[in-house]
Amino acid sequence: MGKIIKKSIKRNQIYKKINSDGNETIKNYMTEWENQGKIIKTPFVELSKKLRDDHELNFESKAICNWWNILDPRLDHTPYSKEEKNYIYEWASKYQENGNIQWKLLQTEMETKFGKFRARNELKTIWNVKKRQLGAKSSNFKKEDDKNEGESECEDELKYDKPMLNM
């Protein structure tokens, strides 16, 4: 009997790149969608169909995130200031305690406070980098504490042994 080979299906197909014509289609469609008052609740499903029909690009709706992260003309792609980063750290740590962090809320608050409309993906990235750094520092401190803890126990034993030697 022959070997059965399963074909894997890549569901989101993010490995493909959207060409400049596709990006232009996304911009035009989203501008039209906003001007209509955002009537359609699932714009990326319709956009996926439009890209498939107009440009023969087969993307699932979840994979079309270029609008939110890159193409939206309101997005400010300048580097973040220290004040902005600190605000993100404080805001995300506050809302992380409540469970799910709602990046859309942070995005609007950042626009109000700093006058810059930032991509949600960038906000998440800045927070996750900081969170990883804090995790690495805490694990290093724990390793140091474990290392020092063993040494202090030995020193304590030596202190208790010294008086017994004099007897």
How would you portray this structure in words?
By secondary structure, the chain is mainly α. The protein folds into two domains: 10-73; 76-167. Helices cover 65% and strands 0% of the residues. Helix 1 (20-35) packs antiparallel against helix 2 and helix 5 crosses helix 6. The longest helix has 47 residues, at 120-166. The radius of gyration is 27 Å and the shape is elongated. The relative contact order is 0.08. The model is unreliable at 5-15 and 152-162 (pLDDT under 50).
Q: Class by helix and strand content? A: mainly alpha
Domain count: the total is: 2
Distance between the first and last residues' Cα: 85 Å
Tell me the radius of gyration. Answer: 27 Å
The portion of residues forming beta strands comes to: under 5%
Q: What is the helix/strand order?
A: HHHHHH
Shape designation: elongated
- Uncertain runs with pLDDT below 50, 5 residues or more? 5-15, 152-162
The count of DSSP E runs of length 2 or more, i.e. the number of strands, is 0
Count of helical segments? Answer: 6
Approximate helicity band: 55-70%
Instruction: Calculate the mean pLDDT score and round it.
Output: 77
* Sheet having the most strands: none
Keywords:
single chain; 167 residues; mainly alpha; elongated
Short account of what is shown:
It contains 6 helices and no strands. It is mostly helical and 167 residues long. The longest helix has 47 residues, at 120-166.
